[in-house]
Specification:
This protein is 66% helix and 0% strand. The chain is an all-alpha fold. Its main location: endoplasmic reticulum.
């Protein structure tokens, strides 16, 4: 990390309101708050994570980072990408693969389950990789700095909630090549601010940053819906299995849970149950 420190001291770029990093922070402020206050992220921070919830989150993170890192690799020499291309320090894909193999086994790819929002997110990343590589900086900034900011905290929450030992299944949260997250984030912002953009390109990057947050919010919401639907189906199946046989007079309505009660129960479970980044997720978005 000494090399990062020297780079930062040598560049000495004073961050101002005109810098790209500050402009992204400003235009995404509202989306930032909205992302942090989704039921999924609020619940994650409360430390009531279940294994199924965590596995579904990893599945979505895999598809997102697969697209992001493939496009960053393809465009690594592009003027809008090269300054913020740090595969050794930041790449998450191999770590996520390791976690998925730990939970699902060698055939983990055959068991991936992701909501439609995740696929839309990945599709957008591939689209801009082809058409507007400079827009990738908005997504890289949103994902990686979010992961660095909240990764250590969320990793400890997941470990405690799931009872995981020796870091197994938690590789996503580990950045072994980054010894000082705060220092590295300063370097990353400095490199971002060094990217030369036309006014039209800059406006496009800022719009893409808002879009990145919106994609993450949609993923969080659809993961919640996926979990809620799965749990409601399981609850109905249990009820059907354990219900006594009814006479010809009809069904015993007293044994049925009112739909409003089931709905509110699932709402509360999600609110209190699911633990960034990716950001992350997916990561806590405290840049």
């Amino acid at each position: 990390m000494e090399a990062d420190h020297r780079c930062l001291l040598n560049e000495r770029n004073q961050i101002t309101d005109c810098d790209l990093s500050e402009q992204i922070k400003a235009v995404t402020k509202e989306s930032h708050v909205q992302a942090e206050n989704t039921k999924v992220m609020l619940a994650f921070q409360r430390g009531q994570l279940t294994l199924q919830q965590y596995k579904l989150l990893l599945c979505s993170l895999y598809k997102i980072y697969e697209a992001l890192e493939e496009e960053l690799d393809k465009n690594s020499s592009h003027d809008g990408v090269a300054p913020i291309y740090f595969p050794q320090e930041l790449a998450r894909l191999e770590s996520i693969k390791k976690d998925l193999e730990h939970f699902y086994g060698a055939n983990w790819k055959e068991q991936l389950t992701v909501p439609a929002a995740t696929l839309r997110y990945a599709q957008r990343l591939r689209e801009i990789g082809r058409k507007h590589p400079e827009y990738l900086v908005a997504h890289a900034y949103t994902r990686y700095l979010g992961d660095l900011s909240g990764g250590q905290v969320l990793g400890r929450i997941a470990q405690k909630s799931l009872g995981l030992k020796n870091g197994e299944g938690l590789s996503f949260f580990s950045f072994p090549a980054v010894s000082s997250p705060n220092l590295f984030k300063q370097l990353y912002r400095s490199r971002m601010n060094s990217i030369t953009l036309t006014e039209l390109q800059r406006e496009g990057v800022l719009q893409e940053a808002v879009r990145a947050f919106n994609f993450n919010i949609q993923v969080f919401e659809e993961l919640q819906n996926l979990l809620s639907t799965s749990e409601e189906t399981e609850l109905r199946q249990r009820h059907k299995t354990h219900s006594p046989k009814m006479s010809d007079a009809g069904t015993d309505k007293s044994l049925e849970l009112p739909s409003s009660l089931v709905s509110s129960s699932q709402f509360l479970r999600i609110l209190l149950g699911l633990a960034v980044v990716l950001t992350v997720g997916m990561g806590v978005y405290a840049f």
